[in-house]
Amino acid sequence: MKNLDYQSASEIVIFGALGDLSRRKLLPALYQLEVCGLINEQSRIVGVARQEHTPKEFEAIVLENLQAFVKEALDEAVLTRFLARLVYQQLDFKNEQAYVNLANTLASGNKTRVYYFSTPPAIYGDICAGLNEAQLISDSDRVVMEKPIGHSLESSKVVNDKVAKYFKEQQTYRIDHYLGKETVLNLLVLRFANSLFTNNWDRNSIDHVQITVAESVGIEGRWGFYDEAGQMRDMVQNHLLQILSLLAMEPPADLSAQSVRDEKLKAVKALRPINKENIKEKTVRGQYSDGFLNGAPVPGYLNEEGANKDSTTETFVAIKAEIDNWRWKGVPFYLRTGKRMPAKHSEIVVHFKQQPHNIFKDSYSDLPANKLTIRLQPDEGVELQMMNKIPGIASQMHIQENKLDLSFSQTYKNERVIDAYERLMLEVLNGNQSLFVSRDEVEAAWTWADSIIDAWQSTNEAPKPYPAGSWGPVSSIALIARDDRQWVE
């Protein structure tokens, strides 16, 4: 184990330790940090849940999930070390008096406590009140919350206010796991470490930007949660606006949390409002119907198990977003996200402007513009589409379109692509907030998203149907075609 002088010993307390997020992501991420020797040797992992379990039973549950969700073979020595950190505490989250038992479980002394709320946001306030009642909150402690927080601006304020009553902003880590992805982090390097892009990243050189986050899965049994949220709340105001802000923000003074967050916030605040006057022109909302995926039939949203047959919740959203500032005036950002699309596929495509004059008309009559594609998943990488001469002795110059492709899996063959939660958990332990979302960012995103949701509700129109396995409603094609452009698929 490395001597991590910069990382204090911690009690990593996971509320909802037996839930899906903890089992699939958090515990495997902590195991991988153990593999890398990146957890202080004095730190412990305290699982907290409502169910009764002995320490051995909890250890067996954790082991089963590590075997299921860690891709590599488990290292016995590392596993022994990791399992030795585990502690379990049964707790009724809403019973303030029960937190005394948690206080008895947690170590006394000067360990930093990291409280990870892997629970519904509705009970964040109950947990905070219980911790306070048991005198388990100090200025050195940290709290981690999963986005989306609330389902509107007002509800997010309620949740944030309850947490802020006990934890300061500098103690609060709001996770958007997209910010931990390698290719999303690479946006900062791509933009600000390469003069080719730094000097051409504005309205003078860029025609438009497309951001697509497509999911092939349906709602996966989460009917209750998803039908209340929908794709706008679950994905657009959450992940897509974070990606957009990194693409559109001004250069930060440095990589400190304050500098990066301030510039991202300015970008979101500069988004042109979408409301009842322009909602039909700027957005499309859809809902998947029965269809086929990979040759197999899949049910439509209204035919999913437990479905409300009258639901008008959207499973697809396309938006033409515009940023009203000097850098981006006149450059549309087309956002698209949906469920039951042909593949799990997330990418950013930056379309540069065409050459003002084509001197190669004899061999290439319609000279295409350069495109920069940033593949977020599954095949992480960056590619630049550009024109080249075809080798040959002919007097007429023949040219063709080629790609410079930097595939992470090929370029960094000896490097494991880190899971987003591994990075984010490490940053929490190290006390670095730069990859986490400030309250101001959350509220700016909700302000913009709420205006769209309110406008949809005012029209009282049902979402447009699209067959499962397709790229969305036909009207989403029209959204971008009106500007004489088309989606990259």
Automatic annotation (TrEMBL):
GO terms for molecular function: glucose-6-phosphate dehydrogenase activity; NADP binding. GO terms for cellular component: cytosol. Keywords: Carbohydrate metabolism, Glucose metabolism, NADP, Oxidoreductase. Residues 13-186 form the Glucose-6-phosphate dehydrogenase NAD-binding domain. One of its GO terms (biological process) is pentose-phosphate shunt, oxidative branch. Its EC number is 1.1.1.49. Pathway: Carbohydrate degradation; pentose phosphate pathway; D-ribulose 5-phosphate from D-glucose 6-phosphate (oxidative stage): step 1/3. The active site is at H239 (proton acceptor). Residues 188-487 form the Glucose-6-phosphate dehydrogenase C-terminal domain. It catalyses: D-glucose 6-phosphate + NADP(+) = 6-phospho-D-glucono-1,5-lactone + NADPH + H(+). It comes from the Bacteria. NADP(+) binds at R50, D92, F93, K147. Substrate binds at H177, K181, E215, D234, K339, K344. Belongs to the glucose-6-phosphate dehydrogenase family. PANTHER family: GLUCOSE-6-PHOSPHATE 1-DEHYDROGENASE (PTHR23429:SF0), GLUCOSE-6-PHOSPHATE 1-DEHYDROGENASE G6PD (PTHR23429). Catalyzes the oxidation of glucose 6-phosphate to 6-phosphogluconolactone. This is Glucose-6-phosphate 1-dehydrogenase.
